[in-house]
Amino acid sequence: MAITLGMQLFHPLPPSNNVVRVRMIDTTSAMKLYVEVFLKPNSPPWTIKRIETAIPGVRVEKDVREILQEKGMELGEINDIIWSHSHWDHTGSAYHFPPSTNLCFGKGTGPFPGYPLNADSALNAANFKNRQCMEIDYETQIEPFPAHDLYVDGSIYLLDTPGHWPGHIGDICHFAGNFRPSEDVSFPDKIPEGAFGNCGDDHIIKQNDHHPQHHGQMSGSVDPNRRPFYKLSTHHHSSYKDPSLANITTLKMQKYFDSDPNVLVCLAHDTALLDHLPTFNADLNQDLNEWKQNGMKEKCHWGWLKELPRYDKDGNVLGPGMRESPIVVGS
Known about the structure:
Radius of gyration: 20 Å
Shape: globular
Strand order of the largest sheet: 3-4-5
Order of helices and strands: HEHEHEHEEEEEHHHHEE
Helix content: 10-25%
Largest sheet: 3 strands, parallel
């Protein structure tokens, strides 16, 4: 894996003696979405016009509070909840937590005061009742993004990453194929073992006709193994409020963070993380802090490939991607 030094080369993090222990929770939530919500389709206009809805199915097994409580944690132990943005699958039910738990969100989040006080709001007004709410103000810079030092000790920075939704903080896109492979991290000669699960090896990808090299979107001088598989969706069902700005933000994330061997990029919707990283659900004593020593970046980096259709070495379709089967189809 050829990697540049990313953000460390351009703008090193401010020094700090404080570190945090990071643990990952599997929220047990899954949605069946039409692809054009996140990716720019290669379909003819008449096909796109037939698409009428974006989310035909959803599954939520447990609320985050239930997962915490099952592992013996009291909700009062949680000091802060940080919303990356105001979409329902990222806000949860903060009103289940006691008033002592603060709620943090980015500038532009809203509209307030929330439903039912504001009939046009997707936010629940109960989330804000009787608790301290903090709209993030960015006072520093973690190149190339405005940043906020949450605890004023250098342990956690919140980044302003615009484009997906107003007030967005942190990971900007939903699918790693929007910024992988790249000029900095090209397809390796051999995909790391285990990246595909039970799908097979890398011939699946190089035969995939969804890559721009197969439908004339790249000039002959561009190496397709150094360009992302997909573009962000500009469809009218797109989840991106400002696709052009989101694309700029995504490419910045790739250049400064994803290309850096000292940074592990974790997208909220990246199912490959659940395949390779320990979760709080399985063992509350495990954390992500040893990800580099355990080679987790290399394993997670190409896990998104198993979402794509599978091909044999002759280019024949073997079957759909691993996540192709329906979850719950709504009526």
